[in-house]
Amino acid sequence: MDFLLSIYKWLSDGLNFVLPIALVVVGFFFFFVTKGVQFRLFKVGIKNLLSGDATKSLDKTNISPVQAFMTGLASRVGIGNIAGVASAIVLGGPGAVFWMWFAALLGMASAFAESSLAQLYKTKNSEGQFVGGPAFYIAQGLKLPVVGVIFSICLAFTYGFAFNSIQANQIANTLHSAFDVDTRTTAIVVTAMTAIVIFGSLKAVSNASSGLVIVMSILYIFIGIAVLVVNYDRIIPALETVFANAFNLDAGLGALFGTTIAYGIKRGLFSNEAGMGSAPNIAATASTKHPAEQGLVQMIGVCFDTFIICTFSALIILTTGIYGDGKYDNAALTTQSAVVSLGDWAAIAMSIIIFLFAFTSIIGNFAYALSGLKYFTQNKYVRFLFTIGVCAIVYIGSVSSPKAVWDAADLAMAIMTLLNLVAIVFLWKQVKLIIDDYKRQLHKKDLDPEYEIEFNSDLYPVLRDKIYHQSIWSRKLDENADDGIHKTTGYKLFGHNDTENHR
């Protein structure tokens, strides 16, 4: 056992060292590949997200772009936004906040790449639902199905069991601390609520996520604004502290500087999940006309998570100044900072917010885990058993410490992320093709507002899947259409309708 633990620690330490570096390098890489998509097409992404078409699915089976955005946001916006920011400030100092922002800017390009690829390589199951994600573009784009299996195992375990155990534990501990609610009572209630939602369809999960994300985000932003109003004279000094400490080389000849960067980048990138390979699984389920559309939508999600929610957390903590006392950490530091500024009622409000953040993460995590499961099978009985297992782990996580599961999840999550980063780098030509095609059509739409932007893989033979099936984005070309895109006569669907069979 000691030998196995030493091997685990060696792997975990090595991957935790490599991972932040890899995330930054890949973020820079796709910044150049996409020519700064996070800046050049940010307004387009916002416009697409707010358009009426984004709320509509192209069919009755699959979810809309907005539903995919909300489900992805439900997983991104979680306890990490409250506890993760506090932990980064305690361990890395106020300067860590700057590096969280830096990480988010880079991560937006990676998020665009992975979610666009998920759309490009998505397929349909026997029920007509879109499925996809890193496991699919690893298997089809890189022709490495075994690696796709490894990724999907890590995804299903990490999000279905490990992360949900931790989220449930945070709910139980928060309610016990604030209201002295017995953890077993919380376990029963949270497990029942989880079961009601996740035993439904993916649309039910998305609808629940959409409503709760809006409620919890508004509540948390309200708390943040209230704290900043009370501490308005400390906002500028707090921001000055962030920038001053971000580049502070005085302490320990740069040792503190290195810690600040490491924790800022690590917490930032893992908070917004850009590059992890999680968001692409829900991005693939959206019904869209062009792969780039969902890439832009998920890119906006990274921005909202870090620059809005995480920034509010940082300012709540930094404007009160109690982070230097060493008495509080994680969610307790954020909660106590709100209490110091607003009074005891803030403890109740923060408990409700933490509950909503954690519960929506459970729902969003299940959607991701289910995507990993669907890579193996579409069997409804397997899904039923898996769903029961998720409910069981929610109960277990509520009444016990999730440390052992979290330790195992760290390794699975690191493997999952590195596999995804390597995959999207090797598929960079496809990413460039997608964004170039989208920009070309945006230009046509500027000239003709009636022009319909649609992707057509028939124009790009390099995208044809040579192993499994022809691309879902294939159309029957209309010879009279402009580039075969402006007018189409319909989809040429797959050659099969069952992901399980073709594997």
From TrEMBL:
<feature type="transmembrane region" description="Helical">
    <location>
        <begin position="186"/>
        <end position="205"/>
    </location>
</feature>
<feature type="transmembrane region" description="Helical">
    <location>
        <begin position="299"/>
        <end position="323"/>
    </location>
</feature>
<keyword id="KW-0997">Cell inner membrane</keyword>
<feature type="transmembrane region" description="Helical">
    <location>
        <begin position="345"/>
        <end position="369"/>
    </location>
</feature>
<dbReference type="GO" id="GO:0005886">
    <property type="term" value="C:plasma membrane"/>
</dbReference>
<keyword id="KW-0813">Transport</keyword>
<keyword id="KW-0472">Membrane</keyword>
<protein>
    <submittedName>
        <fullName>Uncharacterized protein</fullName>
    </submittedName>
</protein>
<keyword id="KW-1133">Transmembrane helix</keyword>
<feature type="transmembrane region" description="Helical">
    <location>
        <begin position="411"/>
        <end position="431"/>
    </location>
</feature>
<keyword id="KW-1003">Cell membrane</keyword>
<keyword id="KW-0769">Symport</keyword>
<feature type="transmembrane region" description="Helical">
    <location>
        <begin position="142"/>
        <end position="166"/>
    </location>
</feature>
<keyword id="KW-0812">Transmembrane</keyword>
<feature type="transmembrane region" description="Helical">
    <location>
        <begin position="14"/>
        <end position="33"/>
    </location>
</feature>
<dbReference type="InterPro" id="IPR001463">
    <property type="entry name" value="Na/Ala_symport"/>
</dbReference>
<feature type="transmembrane region" description="Helical">
    <location>
        <begin position="73"/>
        <end position="92"/>
    </location>
</feature>
<feature type="transmembrane region" description="Helical">
    <location>
        <begin position="381"/>
        <end position="399"/>
    </location>
</feature>
<dbReference type="Pfam" id="PF01235">
    <property type="entry name" value="Na_Ala_symp"/>
</dbReference>
<comment type="similarity">
    <text>Belongs to the alanine or glycine:cation symporter (AGCS) (TC 2.A.25) family.</text>
</comment>
<dbReference type="GO" id="GO:0005283">
    <property type="term" value="F:amino acid:sodium symporter activity"/>
</dbReference>
<feature type="transmembrane region" description="Helical">
    <location>
        <begin position="212"/>
        <end position="230"/>
    </location>
</feature>
